[in-house]
Description:
This protein starts with a helix and ends in a 5-residue tail after the last helix. α2 (59-93) runs antiparallel to α4, α2 crosses α5 (136-147) and α2 (59-93) crosses α7. It has two domains: 2-32; 48-255, no CATH class. It has ten helices and five strands, in the order αββαααααβββαααα. The chain has a three-stranded antiparallel beta sheet with strand order 3-5-4, with no helix packed on it. The chain has helices spanning 2-31, 59-93, 103-111, 121-130, 136-147, 153-158, 192-205, 210-221, 228-232, 243-255; strands at 37-39, 42-44, 165-166, 172-173, 185-187. The protein has 260 residues and is mainly α.
Amino acid sequence: MRFGFVAKVVVALSILVVSIVFIKATFNRQFSTQEPVVVGKQPLPTKDVIPAFSAMTNVAEKKQAFFNFIRPGVVNANRAIALDRQYLLDLKASYDGQSLAPEKYLELLKHYKLETTEFDLPTLNRLLRRVDVIPNALVMVQAANESGWGTSRFARLGLNFFGQWCFSKGCGLVPNARNDDASHEVKVFASVDESIASYLRNLNTHPAYRHLRDVRAVLREHNEAVTASKLATGLTSYSERGEEYVLELLQMLRHNKAYL
Length: 260
C-alpha cells in the first residue's frame, strides 16, 4: 500500500512538471520576440511590428486604424523639421555677417544636401527652402496610397510605406516585377519613424521635387497656408503616372478627410 501511494505521488509530480514545462514553452513561443528575417544585408523587422491591416474587413475601420497608426510618426517628424526651421529663421534674424557658422547650421547643410559651408544670407535662404514641413494629411495619404493601406509586402516586411528605392545590392527587397536590366531594390527601414524621416528628406532634397519646394516657398512668401492639396501638385515625378497620380492623391485627400 505504501509503495502504491508513493508511486502515485511520483506520477502526479511528473505530470505536473511536464505540464509546467509545456505551458512555459507554449508561452515563450507565443510571446517571445521573433528574430529578424534577413534579406541581403538588411535585417527585416518582424511581421508583428505593424497591425494586420489586410485582416480588417470593415473599410472605414481599416482606414481609421491605418491613419491612427501612421499619424504619430508623421506629426513627430514634422515637429522636428519645424523646430529646425525656427532655428534657421532665428539665425537669419540675428545674422550680422561676422559670426562663424554654428555647428548645427553646418549639420543641417549636410543633412539637406547643400554642398557648401558658406554662412551667409543667400545660403540661409536656400536652406530654408528645404527645411520645411510637408502637411501631415499629404504624408498620410501618400503612405496609404504607396503601401496599399499598410498591406504591401514592402510595408509589412520592410516598414517602407512610401515605395522608396535604394541602389546597392542587398539594401532592401527586390520587387517581383522588376525588369531584368534593373538593379533597384525597395529600401528596408528599421522603424516606421525612419521610413517617414527618409521620405520627408527625399521630398525636401531631391531635384525631382523642386517644384513642390518652389510652391511651398511661394506660399510662405505670401503668408498663405501650406496645404496638402497645394503641395500635392508638386508630386508628378513621384510616380510614372504623373498627373494621374496627383489627381488620385487629391481624390484621396477629399474622400478621407473624416479620418485624417
